[in-house]
């Protein structure tokens, strides 16, 4: 994966995905209904706005349709799915080439944060159809560590919470924390990879906090949002001995972005994407225009690699737009939060 | 701008996530810090580990805090500045806020009597009591940490949790985001008076975190509408404080004309914003003359900015005021409007409006509007007869029964869903420290144990 100018990279990706020899059956078929010619009309990043957001089509399409022909039989694809928050999960395929590059990049970012190598990991992140579990396994291995994995089914948790069965959600989390506890107590864990809700639950157990303090040198978090106040508390009050590294990613992004190293404690958590393959734009949801740096807007994600083309995907998250490092592509994003839900303005009777 | 910090066991905490509170014309007044879930969890844990002050020290500290609340500069605000801020933000008439300040101080000073009154007659306070030698009942708390989802309709609702503090609970208050000023001031005063940072906390949160406060406390109290009552109805750890639906009943043999003042006070006293304000007026015989008299009297109340000394009506921004107006008309369809039929919006010309009184006449004591309680003077006058019985009088916080019928009074006093019965010429908002408001809170917080030593 080599550095290229943006336009050149974008055109190369268009050629890969829309040439009959290399493109996937999905995109070759879909090209006819785009209303523009990706090979001639898409010259640079800004032209990606021409594409429709196709992620919803990934709920039904056969995954083999997504494999670019250019790989031939050497794709060694893995299939991953979204969390299924908004209905039937979406499915994508990660080529072995992409997965390896993604893990290597992630590992380099961890080096930049001083996350130790040659230590074992405890990963309390979703496995199964979700990519993050595989990232954990392979990143730990690449860095010379073993990975102790806790199985975590976010779809089940979301379902029981949506049904208001908080007692069941609690019981499930207790069950997970119990397993985390066994590993923390018996194994020499140097890196803890977990979702923010798992870290919050861990923080309630003084005995486990003590174990983390004694053993864990870096905490990598991701998978769900972590608000700035909770991040401060976890880092400054609860797990004081560990380096914190955050990730913002997802299956539809085909990977993650990673917290920028070297920022002060009072600065917001800035995420840099794996450019040029994954790039962000922060837009005004009403006008579609990119907001000025420092302003908040909705995140648009472009993924463009030989593995997949998933561009112009409007995420439900909001963030502050930040300049990319070293004049890179797209935007960096800070203070990512889910889109606020607005209560209706109907009146509620009563005096309280 | 006024910073309103979270007041947690580690001292004041200023979060990055803050909510700006505006006055009625829309000027920013204060920044309220919102505690994240993790903060709440840790705060309640620390409070649970803390030990309570001895009983006498608690009682003394409450009285001291009450005096400071009413008379001293607290968290940078004089009492006058505090009262003005509450009135300007909530639209509660300034005189009502001022009365509430004095009332809170008095409640704090007299809390000893309130909890003493609530204690079962056969129980003692401590195992050290000599009576424990032969075996006696000792009154003990059911938990250590009490959580409150407070209401913002009236400053004096915060008296409601003094009992828990007096009885040895550590108390965590989640303020209403509409009016966090009173609990912030009160809790600051209580901390300074001796309860310290771990004895009492102010935990403002957004809606998503609110339930965490209840979940991590032993017992809790929640103010809200019918939806809130339904939500917590099955939870023995939670005491819901629902709509008041206070009422007045006038039977045929009594003369209503001399007590019109009492009726007006019941409907509109304190701005009509309380759960103790009368919602329904039931009249045996023809209710029209009563409705006419009430309408005439209430129509005379002036529309004034809440901070005006003469203000007696609540004020809110004009848009929600108009929504209330629309809502009221929809709900009142088919009734006879004696007052407010042509609108309840008293436009003050500055983007806000006084909510003017409304009086509607219903044709049946079973009309569903009778239970419709609103945050301004709004009464539903209905006919009542002996055949209707006490069914229309159920689910009532305060019932003023203007009657001489002892059998009827027996029935009303025995009715479990009527919390308080005032017989004769007493306004529904009447309260006295030491007497229960909706039962003694201690009935929920305490239990008896036999001790023998």
Structure commentary:
Chain B: Keywords: Oxidoreductase. Chain B: Residues 40-360 form the Aldehyde dehydrogenase domain. Chain B: GO terms for molecular function: oxidoreductase activity. The complex is a heterodimer of chains A (352) and B (453). Chain A is an alpha/beta fold and 352 residues long. Chain A has one domain (6-343): ANL, N-terminal domain (Rossmann fold), CATH 3.40.50.12780. Chain A has helices spanning 6-18, 25-30, 38-41, 96-112, 131-142, 154-162, 166-186, 196-203, 206-215, 228-238, and strands at 78-81, 91-94, 120-124, 147-149, 189-194, 218-221, 243-250, 255-259, 270-272, 278-283, 296-304, 309-322, 332-338. In chain A, α4 crosses α5 (131-142) and α6 (154-162) runs antiparallel to α7. The longest helix of chain A has 21 residues, at 166-186. The mean pLDDT of chain A is 93. With 453 residues, chain B is an alpha/beta fold. Chain B folds into two domains: 2-242, 3-Layer(aba) Sandwich (Aldehyde Dehydrogenase, Chain A, domain 1), CATH 3.40.605.10; 246-423, Aldehyde Dehydrogenase, Chain A, domain 2. Chain B has helices spanning 37-49, 55-71, 79-90, 94-109, 111-118, 162-166, 181-199, 207-216, 226-232, 260-268, 288-299, 318-331, 406-414, 442-445, and strands at 2-4, 6-8, 11-13, 18-22, 28-33, 123-124, 136-141, 145-149, 170-174, 200-202, 219-223, 238-241, 246-250, 278-284, 315-317, 336-339, 345-347, 352-355, 358-361, 378-384, 396-402, 418-423, 446-451. In chain B, strands 16-19-20-14-13-21-22 form a seven-stranded mixed β-sheet, with helices on both faces. Chain B has a five-stranded parallel β-sheet with strand order 10-9-8-11-12. In chain B, β21 (396-402), α13 (406-414) and β22 form a beta-alpha-beta unit. In chain B, α3 packs across α4 (94-109). The relative contact order of chain B is 0.14. The model of chain B has no long low-confidence stretch (mean pLDDT 96).
């Amino acid at each position: 994966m080599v550095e290229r100018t943006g336009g050149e990279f974008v055109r190369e990706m268009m050629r890969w995905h829309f040439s009959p020899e290399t493109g996937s059956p999905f995109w070759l078929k879909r090209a006819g209904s785009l209303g523009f010619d990706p090979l001639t009309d898409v010259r640079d990043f800004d032209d990606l706005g021409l594409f429709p957001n196709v992620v919803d089509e990934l709920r039904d399409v056969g995954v083999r349709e997504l494999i670019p022909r250019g790989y031939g039989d050497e794709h060694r694809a893995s299939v991953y799915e979204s969390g299924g928050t908004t209905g039937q999960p979406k499915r994508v395929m990660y080529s072995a080439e992409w997965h390896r590059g993604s893990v290597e990049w992630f590992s380099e970012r961890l080096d930049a944060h001083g996350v130790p190598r040659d230590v074992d990991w405890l990963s309390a992140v979703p496995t199964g159809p979700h990519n993050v579990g595989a990232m954990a396994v392979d990143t730990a291995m690449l860095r010379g560590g073993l990975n102790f994995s806790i199985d975590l089914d976010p779809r089940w948790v979301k379902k029981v919470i949506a049904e208001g069965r908080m007692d069941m959600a609690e019981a499930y989390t207790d069950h997970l924390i119990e397993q985390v506890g066994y590993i923390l107590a018996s194994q020499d864990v140097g890196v803890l990879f977990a979702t923010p809700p798992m870290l919050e639950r861990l923080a309630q157990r003084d005995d486990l906090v003590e174990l983390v303090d004694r053993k864990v040198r870096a905490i990598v978090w991701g998978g769900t949002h972590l608000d700035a106040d909770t991040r401060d508390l976890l880092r400054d009050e609860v797990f004081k001995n560990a380096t914190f590294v955050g990730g913002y990613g997802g299956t539809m992004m085909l990977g993650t972005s990673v917290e920028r190293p070297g920022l002060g404690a009072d600065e917001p958590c800035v995420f840099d994407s794996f450019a040029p393959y994954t790039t962000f734009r922060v837009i005004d949801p009403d006008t579609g225009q990119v907001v000025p740096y420092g302003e908040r807007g909705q995140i648009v994600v472009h993924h463009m690699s030989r593995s997949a083309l998933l561009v112009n995907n409007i995420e439900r998250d909001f963030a502050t737009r930040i300049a990319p490092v070293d004049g890179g592509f797209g935007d960096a994003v800070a203070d990512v939060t889910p889109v606020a839900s607005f209560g209706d303005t109907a009146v509620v009777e009563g005096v309280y | 701008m006024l910073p309103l910090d979270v007041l947690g066991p580690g001292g004041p905490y200023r979060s990055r996530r803050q909510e700006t509170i505006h006055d009625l014309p829309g000027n920013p007044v204060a920044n309220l810090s919102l505690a994240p879930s993790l903060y709440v969890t840790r705060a309640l844990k620390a409070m649970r580990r803390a030990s309570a002050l001895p009983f006498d020290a608690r009682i003394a500290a409450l009285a001291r805090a009450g005096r400071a609340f009413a008379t001293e500069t607290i968290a940078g605000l004089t009492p006058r500045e505090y009262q003005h801020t509450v009135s300007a933000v909530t639209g509660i008439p300034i005189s009502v806020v001022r009365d509430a300040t004095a009332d809170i101080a008095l409640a704090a000073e007299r809390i000893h009597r309130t909890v003493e009154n609530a204690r079962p007659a056969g129980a003692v306070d401590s195992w050290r009591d000599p009576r424990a030698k032969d075996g006696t009942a000792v009154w003990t708390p059911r938990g250590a940490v009490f959580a409150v989802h407070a209401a913002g309709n009236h400053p004096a609702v915060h008296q409601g949790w003094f009992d828990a503090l007096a009885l040895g609970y550590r108390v965590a208050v989640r303020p209403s985001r509409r009016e966090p000023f009173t609990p912030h001031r009160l809790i600051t005063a209580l901390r300074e008076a001796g309860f310290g940072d771990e004895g009492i906390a102010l935990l403002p949160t957004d809606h998503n975190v609110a339930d965490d406060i209840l979940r991590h406390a032993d017992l809790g109290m929640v103010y809200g509408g019918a939806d809130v009552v339904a939500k917590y109805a099955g939870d023995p750890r939670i005491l819901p404080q629902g709509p008041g639906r206070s009422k007045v009943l006038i039977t045929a043999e009594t003369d209503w004309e001399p007590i019109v003042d009492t009726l007006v006070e019941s409907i509109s006293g304190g701005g009509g914003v309380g759960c103790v304000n009368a919602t329904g007026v039931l009249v045996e015989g023809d209710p029209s003359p009563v409705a006419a008299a009430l309408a005439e009297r209430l129509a005379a109340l002036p529309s004034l900015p809440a901070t005006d000394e003469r203000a007696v009506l609540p004020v809110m921004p004009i848009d929600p005021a108009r929504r209330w107006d629309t809502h009221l008309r929809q709900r009142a369809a088919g009734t006879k409007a004696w007052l407010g039929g042509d609108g309840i919006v008293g436009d003050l010309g500055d983007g806000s409006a006084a909510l003017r009184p409304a009086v509607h006449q219903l044709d049946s004591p079973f009309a569903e509007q009778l239970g419709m309680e609103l945050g301004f003077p709004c009464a539903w006058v209905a006919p009542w007869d002996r055949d209707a019985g006490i069914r229309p009088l159920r689910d009532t916080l305060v019932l003023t029964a203007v009657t001489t019928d002892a059998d009827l009074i027996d029935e009303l006093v025995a009715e479990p869903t009527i919390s308080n019965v005032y017989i004769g010429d007493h306004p529904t908002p009447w309260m006295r420290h030491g007497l229960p408001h909706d039962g003694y809170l201690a009935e929920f917080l305490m239990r008896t144990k036999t001790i023998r030593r």
